[in-house]
Every structure is written in structure tokens, then in C-alpha cells.
Amino acid sequence: MTLTANRTPVKPAEDVKAAKRSNPVRFVILAALLALLLIVVAPLLIIAINAVKSPADYASGGPLSLPPHLYWDGIVDFWNRVNFGQKLWNSFVTSFVVAVLGVLLSILNAYALGIGRVRGRVWFLVFFLVANLLPQEVLVYPLYFLSKEAGLYDSLISIVIIFTVIQAAFGTYLLTSVYQEFPTELLDAADVDGAGKLRTLWSVVVPVSRPTLGVLFTFFFIWTWNEFFLPLVFLVSNDNQTVPVALGVLQGDRLMDATMTSASGLIGILPALIFFLIFQRTLTRGITAGAIK
Amino acid sequence: MIRSRAGLSAGALLMAASLALTACGGSGDGDSSNEGADAKTLTLWHYEGPTSAMGIAWNKAIEEFKASHPGVEVKFEEKGFEQIQQNAQMILNSDSAPDIMEYNKGNATAGLLSKQGLLTDLTEEAGKRGWDKALNSSLQTTTKYDDDGIMGSGKTYGIPNYAEYVEVYYNKDLFKKYNLQVPTTLDEFTKVMDTFVQNKVTPLAVGGAEYPAQQILYSLALSKADRAFVDDYQLYKNKVDFKGPQLKYGADTFKQWVDKGYIAKTSAGIKAEDMGVSFTQGKFPIMISGSWWYGRFVNEIKNFEWGTFLFPGNKLHPGSSGNLWVVPEKSKAKALAYDFIDITMKPEIQALLGNNGGVPVAADAASITDAKNKELIENFNKISSEDGLAFYPDWPAPGYYDVLVAGVQGLINGSKTPDQVLDEIAKPYDENLADLGK
């Protein structure tokens, strides 16, 4: 967004004139975009407002009123109550490891399927696609008994393994279609230079497709970070829980604590938001951008 | 092809799983009361917030337990309601099961787990330690489950520390403004609401999208009911006629209340939380809902005086025991778990619960020092002495909650007649009876 804002002033004079002529239209579009933005941001704003509101103010003013003074106790209490620092660390470790392993696995699979043209690759791809479409609820019981047999129930390792596979299934599917379009000239050149299969992969294919891999990495990280259902099932002990599971602690049987829930929601999404902002540039480069230069 | 094979093996696993679940139902322990007495840790889970009445009382109980059991480490973990609700079955069947935990009462929860043999039978301990005498018969209904996991009879699988019931919250300032008295009969209650309507005030705060509306309808039905009706409806003693005098009266009167403007038509989409907030804001003079709001209102209502009374004229009120302490069959410290339950039933812990806005099951009203909480507990003791807990309308059948919400919403927004609604809610009820073979 900052990019476009910076670009407008450097436009040539002719363009500016044209822009002035179509001003009303531009204004309408701008207004529409602003309205849309407000709709998208509104829920986040409400969370932010209520996160810093005291329960008494919430009770007397309702969810939409502005807090008369900033109240940080909700956030602090929640942090201490669930030992949030540890949850952050658990989430970070699992998401990071899953993202790295997931990308690695996707590269190897996609190299074989997209460039290596393994026999029956279409069926492999269909399999990966179907695996992606499978709702997690279906997987729960089989995974539960497998992990219990392997002694991995209530352990972060089980989550890492499960999500590496799930994410890599999507990654393989996507990356394979990218690699199918991979310029054969580059591969032929590598072949002529005497590079083996592995050398070609690491020195030619991976560097060329790095932007796509960056996107995959970011997505894998954020998706794993936001996962709720399987971590809820598999991470039983509080010491092993991830951020979204910890947020669930506040959901009572009949009552909800709206201000503390908002506070937890705010600090729950902040890390993913920060991560997203850092890697935003890799994302904007686009999923298919990097294949051919 | 690949998929279908995977599906097959998943199915096989599921079958193996259900076999394993039923297989471990046996109770092989000889003398269970001393089992795990020498354990060095007690893992304890519950899902009440640290500032709630239960949270405060149970923290104290943990301290007392530590004092009376030096050398035993208490590993307390606060869980999310959702996590326990979703996964209890899987957790209790694994080595990660806690030694003692809080769990929901009811056929679909504690009943189901007891049927699968995942919970320890507490009947003997309850008799030995006098827990059964501390609980009156309607409270005990939710602690006992038969071989099919249906509550009301059979073995004791859980012990509740607190109770809950539905009562009427009212805004004293608004009552004073219109010169109104606390009603003691249903007629008087109607007149009070008429006065508010005449002054262009909607009397009732109702959350039609969740549990509150159906509890009002049930309260109205209970005004014509006796214990036999409750036993029929909740425990399937006899067939219930949905067009009979109780439920028919409930639905018809509820419709009248909507027509007369006691209940706003817009409340069909209101959630319970918003209902509570609108009452704390003073937008409505009356709210009919559960005792679980009490502690929160004590802390949060600053702008007006408020009070409570029982649904006027009723001898039966929606309500039940609170959630249960259960001891998983895989608990490694059963004897310690029994000791802990015993501590939570002690008078001082019960009084602590009562003084923080909870409804203790075995408290002496005299030991409740807080004036506001005294009212709550005296109301409960009144219900308790009349054996007046009638449970909740959505208990009898699985998934019945949503059926009732939809039915009552139809009454509120006028899209269905009372008879249509009664037919609609009778169907799943009867189907469930057929499934149970009754």
C-alpha cells in the first residue's frame, strides 16, 4: 500500500491532467475502497477497543463504546494466567519447523513430479489434492490412535509431523505445477555442464524458484500458527499448548469474559501479523512470479 | 483407489478403537479406596476462571490439600471448556489422563464416559465419606448413571460442589420508579410487566438465540407441573404429552408474552452475553436467567440497585447440580483424588464458594457473611428444601438444544404458532425415546 502511495507524485504531467478529468470516478472508487477497508478492519478494531477496556466499562457501555481510559490489566492477567510466553515459543517452534520441513518436502516431491516426470504423476497429484480437501475431523481418530501407539500423543513432535505432511501436500500440488513450466533451456544447460540430478536441483531449480518458496514458507508458517483443531486434540498438557489453544481457555460453559477474550485475541494475532508484515514483500512478489526470469 | 483403501484402514482403526474402548470397561480393582494413596503427584484439571467463585474456592482447596498431604505435588492445569468437551474421551483413554478433573454433568458427557468405563465408580467412597448425605435427591440425579449412561439411577460417578438455578433478576431502581413491588404470584408478575409496557419499557431482557428463551418457556411450563412431570420429561419415566397441560401452557403463555410486548420481537437474534450486558446497562428492568450471572453482576453493576426473586408462584425451577468432580479410571492417585473431593465438600470451602457468588451444595446459610450472596443462597435453599430443581429443557435428547432454540425463536418472531412449535419439538424427543428403546 505504501508503494502505490509513493508512486503517484512522480507521474508525468499528462497523466495528472487525465487523472483530474476523471476525478469524480476516482473519488467514488476511493470512497468504496475505504468503506471496504473499514468493513475488513472493523472486527479487529472492536477487538482492540475491548482489549483495553475494563470489565466494568464494558458492562456499562457495551462492546462498541470507547474506553474512558486505557486498561492493560486484561492483557497482563491473561499473559500470566496461561503463561503466554511459553505458548508463543511452542507456536513459533512448531510453525517454523513445519514451514522449513514442509517446503523441503514440497521441493523434493515437486522436483520428482514436475521436472522428473515420474510415471503416474497425475494420480499422485490427484492424491495430494484429495488429501488437501479432506477435513481434519476425519483424520482425528486415526491420527489419535497412531500417535498413541507411537508414544507421541501429547507431544509437539506429533503436531510437527502431521502439519509437515498436510502442508507439504498442498506445497507439492502447487510447486509441481510451477515446476512443470520450468524453462527446459536451463535444465538442458545444467545437463550439458555436467550437473547431476541433485546438483541441478540445488544449484538451478531452487535458486530460480526462490520467490515461490518464500511464499510457501510464509503461508506454511501462518497456517500452522493459526491451526486450532488438531493442536487442541493432540496437545493435552498446558506446557505443550500453542497460542490458539491457549486462547480457548477463556471460553467458559455459559459465560464469556468479553474484555479478556478480546485481550487474548489481540495478543494472539499480533505475532502472526508481525510475521506477515515482515514477509509481506515476498508475498507481494506473487506465487507464480519467480518461475521464469 | 488409494483413497478408498485409506478409508478402509481408517474404518478398521475406528472399529479397533471402539472395541478397545468397550474392552477397558471392566473394573478389576479390588480395594479401590487405597489405590494410589502413596502417589507423589496429583494432576488436577478444571476449567473455571481464577476469579470465579469455583476458581477461588478450589484454589483454597488445593492449598488445604497441600497442607494435609506434605510431600505430594499438585499439578494443577486450567483447561478450556472446549478442550475438555471435545477431547475428554480421547484424553481419558490415554496415559495423559489427569488424576481428577471437572467434567460436565449429563447423559451425553459424564454418562457417556461412565458407560465406556472411563470413570471410576465413586458409590462406595460417597457412602463412606458422607458425600451422598450432603447432596439432596435432585442434586444426586446428575451424579448417578446407569449401565446405559442415563442419569438418575445406578452408580455415582461424580460429585458436584455447587449448584445452579434459574431465577428472576430485577432492577430495583426501575421498580421504584414505577412504584412496583416484588411479585409473588404469576398474576402479579404479569401486572408488573403490564405497567412497564404501559410506560413504553420492554420488561424482559431475553436472549432468543441461545439458552435463555427456552428456560423462560420451561419455567412457564413448570408453573403447571409437578415432580412426576419432571421425571417423565427428564428421566423418561412415562410418556410426555407435548400438548398436555404443562408444555401447552408454557408455549401459549410465552406467545402471549411476546404479543403483549413483554418480550421484544428483536430478541430472537440476541445472544445470552448481549442479554446480560443489556441488563447491566439498565436497558431492561427484568431478566430471567441462571445463577451463573450472579457473581458477575455483583462486580459489574454499579449504576443501579438490583435484586433477585424466584420465578413467582413456581415450586419447580430450571436448575441442577453444577459440573462434577470425576476420577478417571486411569487415575494413578485415586485415593488422593478422593481426599481432594472431601476437602472441597468441607464447610469452609463451601462457605468460600458461597461468599464469592457461587451456590454451594452443602453450605450453612449462617456461614455466608456477604449480604448479597445470602439472598442467592437463601433462594437456593428454598428450592432445595422443596426438592425443586427441574433440570434444563434441553437435556432429554442429544442435539435438543438447537431444536428448542429454533422452536422458541419461531414463537418470538411470530413465524410459528405454539402448536406448530410443540409438534416440532416433540418429534426429536420421541425419536430419542425410540432410540433408547423406551
TrEMBL record, chain A:
UniProt topology in membrane: Multi-pass membrane protein
Keyword Transport: yes
Transmembrane segments: 27-49, 88-110, 122-144, 156-179, 200-225, 260-279
Gene3D superfamilies in the cross-refs: MetI-like (1.10.3720.10)
Primary location class: membrane
ABC transmembrane type-1 domain boundaries: 88-279
Location(s), subcellular: Cell membrane
UniProt KW keywords: Cell membrane, Membrane, Transmembrane, Transmembrane helix, Transport
Family listed: Belongs to the binding-protein-dependent transport system permease family.
PANTHER family: ABC TRANSPORTER PERMEASE PROTEIN MG189-RELATED-RELATED, SN-GLYCEROL-3-PHOSPHATE TRANSPORT SYSTEM PERMEASE PROTEIN UGPE
Protein name: Carbohydrate ABC transporter permease
Native species: Paractinoplanes ovalisporus
Lineage summary: Bacteria, Bacillati, Actinomycetota, Actinomycetes, Micromonosporales
Automatic annotation (TrEMBL), chain B:
Keywords: Signal
Record-linked PROSITE patterns: PROKAR_LIPOPROTEIN
Record keyword Signal present: yes
InterPro entries, per the entry: Bact_solute-bd_prot1, SBP
Name the record gives this protein: Extracellular solute-binding protein
Sections of the chain in a coiled coil: none
Pfam families for this protein: SBP_bac_8
Source species: Paractinoplanes ovalisporus
Position of the signal peptide: 1-23
UniProt lineage: Bacteria, Bacillati, Actinomycetota, Actinomycetes, Micromonosporales
